[in-house]
């Protein structure tokens, strides 16, 4: 009985570790405040995120696509979907982003 309990805990630990590692390696979106990808920046990960800065961006694709919306809260029109690395060091119109993890 004790051996079964230890085995179950080991399996649970391994599943949890794989889950956490997957999120740690997820795609990210970086938005800069200043023009030309300068000054303050925010980095966004999994889920729906409102974009605060619009001076430039970089999307680091690691297998999780991102959808960009015209308004905050992942509302409004879908303006773009990224499935590869992208970078633009100029203003952009996206109000929010959802990274599918």
Automatic annotation (TrEMBL):
User: Alphabetically, which GO biological process terms does the record hold?
Assistant: defense response; negative regulation of growth
Q: Where is the signal peptide?
A: 1-26
Q: Which Pfam families match?
A: MiAMP1
- Statement: the UniProt record of this protein carries the keyword Signal: yes
- Say which domain of life the source belongs to: Eukaryota
Q: Where are the transmembrane segments?
A: none
Q: Which UniProt keywords apply?
A: Signal
The answer to whether UniProt assigns keyword Signal to this entry is yes
The record ties this protein, via InterPro entries, to: Antimic/Inh_G_crystallin-like (IPR015791), Antimicrobial_MiAMP1 (IPR015201), G_crystallin-like (IPR011024)
| Listed name of the protein | Antimicrobial peptide 1
Query: Which source organism?
Result: Papaver somniferum
């Amino acid at each position: 009985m004790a051996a079964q309990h230890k085995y179950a805990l080991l399996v649970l630990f391994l599943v949890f570790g794989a889950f956490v590692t997957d999120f740690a390696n997820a795609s990210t979106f970086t938005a800069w405040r200043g023009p030309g990808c300068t000054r303050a920046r925010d980095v966004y990960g999994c889920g729906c995120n409102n974009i605060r800065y619009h001076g430039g961006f970089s999307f680091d694709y690691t297998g999780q696509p991102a959808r960009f919306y015209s308004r905050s809260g992942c509302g409004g029109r879908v303006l773009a979907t990224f499935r590869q690395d992208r970078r633009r060091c100029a203003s952009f119109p996206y109000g929010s982003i959802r990274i599918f993890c």
